Amino acid sequence: MKIGEFSKLVGLSISTLRYYEDQGFLHIERQNGIRNYHAKDVGFVQFIKRLKDMGMPLANIKRYADLRYAGSHTARERMALLQEHYRFIEAEIKRLEDYMNNLEDKLDLYETLVKKNEIE
């Protein structure tokens, strides 16, 4: 499929898709100089989007893409990259839970204060 159709399908702008290809995140087949996207590209682009949304640095996404295109013998290295990012996400969740707990404590304090002022 052409880039415009693919862009709509995956929810990324044409310029973003071109950037991903220029940077080596995507290897897209060309016919007579025209990009030709395939159904198999959809899943990988969606995975790239999820990695980006999860905060994986572009350099690591690029490394993952390079390894993926290098073949199945890179599975161990790809797994290590994903495991490292998994640990990062775990730490982020813990950090956010700590913030949330602190906020809940503050909200409890204000609830008590507001109820006290309503009684008086």
Task: Give structural notes.
It is a single chain. Helices cover 75% and strands 5% of the residues. It is mainly alpha-helical and 120 residues long. A two-stranded antiparallel ribbon has the order 1-2. Strand 1 and strand 2 (34-36) form a beta hairpin. The chain starts with a helix and ends with a helix. The model has no long low-confidence stretch (mean pLDDT 94).
Structural descriptors:
5% strand; 5 helices; single chain; mainly alpha; 120 residues; two-stranded antiparallel sheet; elongated
What general form does the structure show?
A: elongated
| DSSP strand count | 2
> Numbering strands along the chain, what is their spatial order in the largest sheet?
1-2
Radius of gyration: 22 Å
Q: Structural class from helices and strands?
A: mainly alpha
Q: Report on the biggest sheet.
A: 2 strands, antiparallel
Low-confidence stretches: none
What helical percentage do the residues reach?
over 70%
Distance between the termini: 70 Å
Strand content: 5-15%
Provide the residue-averaged pLDDT. Answer: 94
* Element string (H = helix, E = strand): HHEEHHH
Instruction: Work out the helix count.
Output: 5
Any chance you could write out the topology, listing elements then pairs?
Layout: H1 3-10, H2 14-22, E1 29-31, E2 34-36, H3 39-53, H4 58-70, H5 75-119
Antiparallel strand pairs: 1-2
Helix pairs in contact: 4-5
Short note summarizing the structure:
The protein is mainly α and 120 residues long. The protein has helices at residues 3-10, 14-22, 39-53, 58-70, 75-119, and strands at residues 29-31, 34-36.
